[in-house]
Amino acid sequence: MDVSTAAKVEALARPQAGLVTRAQLLAAGLDRGLPAREQAAGRWQRLGSGLYLTAAGPPAPAQRLRAGLLLAGPGAQLCGPTAARLWGLRDAPVAEEVHVLLPESRRRVEAPGVVVHRSRDVPPPWTVGGLPVVALARAAVEAARWAGGLRAARAVLAAAVADGRCAPDELEDWLARGGQQGSRDARRALADARAGAASAPEAEVADLLAPLAARGRLPRFLLNPDLHVEGVRLGRPDLWLPGTGVGHETDSVRHHGDADALDATLDRHARFAAAGVALLHTSPRRARSEPAALVRRVLDAVERATGDPPGLTVTPRGPLLPLLPYRAPRA
To answer: Cα separations (Å) of 118 from 61, 75, 101, 141, 262?
Structure first.
């Protein structure tokens, strides 16, 4: 490749993370056979119909995203789990494919490693990392709807609400504007987030205890309320059983596994104990593998409980659960 050709290719590829299309090369007056020669020499690689990476080795994540947009064509936006992760949404599912949104008026596009969604509802894109993406709330809802199950839907929407990234009403609006695929799980996940669940494991523990509360064996409970004693903040237990002085924490390795996090967890437990609160702890793995044991521990703690500590005030984040009449979530 001569110096002039290299300069033209560089000018095209630099703003596109090292990618060029055949149409761009021809429009710049370059030789139609250039891509084949560069591929044969091992300097370029073909990523899809008429799209080339002007470098050897596997494409970087940013190049995969840009490739998905170029393959989809003008007006494309990143959407769903791809956009949710680009927005930095905690617990957004990892998708091997690049999810791209196009207006419904555009022709259907098939490209390797790219999932193209077409819709009548395509507002102007946001820009994240220099790439066009759908709005954060839309990305969260799409990621939840396409996640393939209640646990994954809960993870993404609980994180979106608990971290203050999305307002529940904004998510509700995008749910109403979307299709039916995955909507049942997404709606249940959003209801859990409104109730105060900050993660899928917290919502799953609530599922285990809700039937007992519905039958009166446990009091109706709150998720993540703020507790104060004599005006001093104790903290926010994942689940609180009013009138018993008993709370429950679902402690994951990710959030409690390193030394600093473990010390903070132990200090927090000691603070609750000193105030007269019995704070139980269970890992998500054990809650899922030994649900009957968790339920028995909670029942035993409530039977031994002496009530809320004096001077306790509770500030709820959501309603008392279970909501009546109670309906168990679909498995």
So the answer is: 23, 11, 6, 16, 46
